[in-house]
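Aim 2 progress update. The chain analyzed this quarter is reproduced below.
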Amino acid sequence: MDEQRPATPPARTDPSIDLLHQRTRQPLEVLFSPRSVAVVGASERAGSVGRTVLWNLISSPFGGTVYPVNPQRPNVLGIKAWPSLRALPEAVDLAVIVTPAKSVPAIIRECAEVGVKGAIIISAGFKETGPEGVKLEQEVLRIAQAANLRIIGPNCLGVMRPTGGFNATFAKGMARPGNVAFISQSGALLTSILDWSLREAVGFSAFVSVGSMLDVGWGDLIDFLADDPMTRSILLYMESIGDARAFLSAAREVALTKPIIVIKAGRTAQAAQAAASHTGTLAGSDEVLSAAFRRAGVLRVDSIEDLFHMAEVLARQPRPSGRRLTLLTNAGGPAVLATDALVSGGGELAVLSDATRAQLDAFLPPPWSHANPVDILGDADAERYAKALETTGADPNSDGLLVILTPQDMTEPTKTADRLKGYAKLPGKPVLASWMGGSEVAAGERILNDAGIPTFGYPDTAARVFNYMWRYADNIAGLYETPTLAEEPTGGGRDVARALVDEARAAGRVLLSEYESKRLLAAYGIPTVETWLATSEEEAVEKARTLGFPVVLKLHSLTVTHKTDVGGVRLNLPDETHVREAFRAIRDALTERGLADAFDGVTVQPMAKLDGYELILGSSLDAQFGPVLLFGAGGTLVEVFQDRALGLPPLNTTLARRMMERTRIHHALKGVRGRAPVDLGALERLMVRFSQLVVEQPFIRELDINPLLVSGERIIALDARVVLHPPDVSAASLPKLAIEPYPHQYAQLLTLKNGEQLLVRPIRPEDEPAMGRFHQALSEQTVFMRYAGLMKLSQRVAHERLARICFNDYAREMALVAVRPSPDGKGGGEILAVGRLTRLRGTKDAEFAITVSDPAQRLGLGTELLRRLVDIGKDWGLRRIVADILTRNRGMQAVSKKLGFTLVEHEELAPDMVKAVKVLNG
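Predicted structure tokens:
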């Protein structure tokens, strides 16, 4: 196929030519697999960190060269010592620094000068010591960033790579090799876990102490471990989240293929000073963190024991499809304990189907429990256990099974375990076991564990683990569950809302009046009760007469926060006399409190005649995650009942529904005690619009709709409160969203060569059905050119694949779709082409890919999509954009060259591939 190769790469005259031929490398490789290491501060002093680190490196066979750096000694531990990094005979990959904090900036500067690409700063004495330490850290970071030098630490234990024999820590000994990566902010905890793991024979693919995370944070490490073939699950001990957006972005991408399990310390600490709104009062920072973990598909556990339990279980057993567990036992008491743990944790006992009960009746003794828990009695032998497990495992009402065995006179723990090991892989249903006892059941436990059935000493522990399993499965399912079609952007509504906010800020105000707040909601299609402003008693009467009685009068004030707290709400006013009295009562109530200047009139509204439920929908700021959304039971007792769920914007209808499902009032909204159900679909869409408001109006600091009155008839906002950021807060200093919102700025029209006009816009999760139709219509030739191979139609249109295509983290990946609008102007339209730009993890490079439907080819669509992707790459500040293209795909090669890409050959490519490279920023 040599004759199909493109022309020989041009001579290297371009200053950026080296970038054309560079391989894209993960910059954290040097921290885990260096070819050479310098220990700066190496020492022979017994008990010193410098001695232990050097000894660990030279006593572990990682295959690289170790250079002690100590200007005071000719050798350390019998190895020639060097006075400085500059004096070394080669430029090392990694420097491990164990010198006093004040010396570290100069050492990092030396690292930058000699080309060191990674450093582990074990030294303490930085920000934990106060302002001077913070200054030292910032100086170190500034030098490192200028040199593209990545740092773990400072104030850390170090890095261990057991699978590669690399130990750059001052821990005692090396961890066993395994497939679990463990990352901790506590070095002391890490050493304790190491000691425990050696006793329990638990192995690790990586063992990392991150310290104060000056540079390398959670997101960087998750990205690195995502591509590590030795890592099957990632465990985190977290004290602070650091860069929230980087963590959520990395975790969401990786969680589907590798479980991420976290234990977060400090969950009972008092939150930062609460905001004045109901939402701010309700949304504690730890609860926000849990919501963020759910959004990213991360499993949060409560104990270190559970951290390792879940790593084992998720590696060995399938995720359950629901929360219903079947208990199989030879004793009643343990099953009751397991049931308590299951139900109190949100799980459910599976209800045995009639068919399953009939089958069990056929072979179990008559006194069996005839329900779940399935008590097969104390004389159960191995065969009875096996038949019962097989029967209950086939019940469609069950999502998982827990087998409990207590050692009784007739029990056969080892034989039963041997008989059950064949059921370790029930399709789609996890099987757990609790072999209770000591030495008598130990052999059976080993048999089950070796077969892949996790065992637990106590059944309540096993039930708790199952609860974690279904929660994890639920989190993962929520990542890629297709939402209903989103409503189109509000367009002019955004401008109306922005004008309201700008006008208030220009006047020096931080509080919108209720009248302004309702206009703001209306701009986003959120229905509000009709509201009129009245500044005098006569005007209030006139407005009430126009609306019709009964009416509601509420305080109109540009400064008062909560109207009910100052007697500013008067309900169900039946006539003009009551309106006059209410107007005066509200005004006088403020005067009595010394707030006469805060009275700016009243609003007049019709008295809502809805028999429904009062909800709250709100947004407030979290110090780590920025804007946070709240949904729950509302009204005046909202803080008392505290029935709420939190989420991060932006929402889609799936995420909105899942927020609702986490509240108790959700059950009532479906219709109880003869009440008609609420239109939950309409409520979901309203929550999406509310989320859109929060995303698009960043100068809003707090927002409450309380109450949001809902019934089977309609949904309407009765009251709203909006607090803005102070006028002196600039757009650049506003809190950032934890999750990148939909990038409307990249939606533009495109005219094809044939004159047809298409809309090119970023892809949305709701595009999955249209994307399925697009892939279904592609010819085999087009599929082969795009994917360098054939793909079955069933694979192309599989939900999991299409969902991952349509669910973009817009900070990492941008897919543009060219859409032919529907003839009726509704729906998502027909997708004719897709162009995708994907960041390569841990680098400043990105890869592009383009697919054009067969009828739309040769109309300039591929060229235009690639042009727009290059513009996005410039916005992202990328170094390079690359793509691997089949040598026979002349069309894509021509498009690439037309837009300034160079075609180069790379050794790592297949012989029938060529790489297109465009350097954006050398």
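Confidence is low (pLDDT under 50) at residues 1-15, 269-283. The chain has 31 helices and 38 strands. These observations will guide the mutagenesis experiments scheduled for the next reporting period.
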